[in-house]
Each structure stands twice: as structure tokens, then as C-alpha cells.
Write a structure and sequence with these properties.
The chain is α+β, with helices and mostly antiparallel strands. The protein contains 7 helices and 9 strands. The chain has one domain.
Length: 187
């Protein structure tokens, strides 16, 4: 365990924000970050990168992506793909493309074996665990054909990766698979 969340605060947010299965998990441990890059958010105001309230209501993935307002972004992997709790089932939101996959499991099953959804191959490229509050920036983009030839990764603040991926999705999310795009890097 690389990080364990602070005490639940404010307490009333636990019932307000969390469906019963998630509330039960967070009562035992208010979120965490593991060495394999799974970050489960907690009920807290700070740090913002760990706050379920910030991710769900303030950062509002449902406004950045095609999600329902009641979809709960309870966790993420090391590259910023979000794990969404919808109708008691876990879905994976691919952050670059906005594609939503039903993982075919409930929350306890997912947390017991998140497996291949964690993208640990990118952590191996980094060569060390993420620091709390970081995610990996991957280039070329994971959704590109060029990524198959190899990528570079660097750890940067999680909220920056989330914002970048959402912006990328806005620009390419509606393009048909296989569309060529040109990337212009600006400062």
C-alpha cells in the first residue's frame, strides 16, 4: 500500500456520495493507492486528487465525458482510465477515447481482482511506483497505432493527466477508428 486515505470527512458525504457497496468498502479503508497503480478514491475534501467528491461533483467526469450524472468515478488506474460504478456494476472509462466498457462484475469482485485493467506495463516502463497524487503521461497516446511501436512515460500530477485526457477525448472522441490525426505540440 503506497497511500491510505485520511479519515472520512465530512461524514455525511459517505451516505450522500456512495452507493451501499462502496460505502461499506470506504468505512473499512477510506481509499488507497497500491503499487500496481490502482487508486480508489475516498470521502474527503483534501487531498483533491483523492477526493471522491472532487472527482464526481466538482471535476465532474459526467460533464467531460458521455456519462450519466449518477455514474460514480470511484477509482482509476495508473494512466487515468476511470473505474465507474453504474447500477452496481463496474465499467472502465478509457480516458483518451471516452469508450465505456462494462467489466461484467460488481464492486467487491472488481476490488478482489482488478487484473489486466490496471495497465501495469506502463508502470514497468517507469521503473518505480507512482507517488501519491501522480498518474502517468503516456506518449504517443495509447489509442494510437504509433503506441504499438513503443511509448515513453513520465509521472506527473494526477489532475493534469485527467485534464489532458479529457481534452484529448473532446478532440478525437467522435472520430472513426483508424482516422489519422496530426498532433501539434504547443507550450
Amino acid at each position: 500500500m503506497l497511500f491510505e486515505g485520511p479519515a472520512i470527512f465530512p461524514e455525511e458525504y459517505l451516505e450522500e456520495l456512495c452507493p451501499p457497496p462502496l460505502a461499506a468498502v470506504l468505512r473499512k479503508r477510506n481509499g488507497w493507492l497500491t503499487a500496481d497503480g490502482l487508486h480508489v478514491r475516498g470521502v474527503c475534501l483534501e487531498p483533491r486528487w483523492h477526493s471522491l467528491d472532487f472527482a464526481w461533483r466538482k471535476e465532474a467526469f459526467h460533464r467531460r465525458y458521455t456519462l450519466r450524472r449518477m455514474d460514480v468515478p470511484f477509482a482509476q488506474n495508473c494512466v487515468g482510465d476511470q473505474f465507474i460504478l453504474r447500477d452496481q456494476r463496474v465499467h472502465r472509462l478509457w480516458a483518451e477515447t471516452g469508450h465505456l466498457d462494462d467489466l461484467g462484475c460488481d464492486l467487491p469482485s472488481f476490488l478482489g481482482n482488478p487484473g489486466a485493467h490496471l495497465e501495469t506495463r506502463y508502470l514497468k516502463l517507469l521503473g518505480k511506483p507512482l507517488e501519491p497524487g501522480q498518474l502517468l503521461s503516456v506518449y504517443p497516446f495509447r489509442c494510437s497505432a504509433q503506441a504499438e511501436a513503443g511509448v515513453s512515460v513520465r509521472a506527473i500530477p494526477a489532475l493534469e493527466v485527467i485534464a489532458f485526457n479529457a481534452d484529448l477525448y473532446k478532440q478525437i472522441g467522435d472520430l472513426p477508428r483508424g482516422t489519422r490525426i496530426q498532433v501539434k505540440i504547443t507550450e
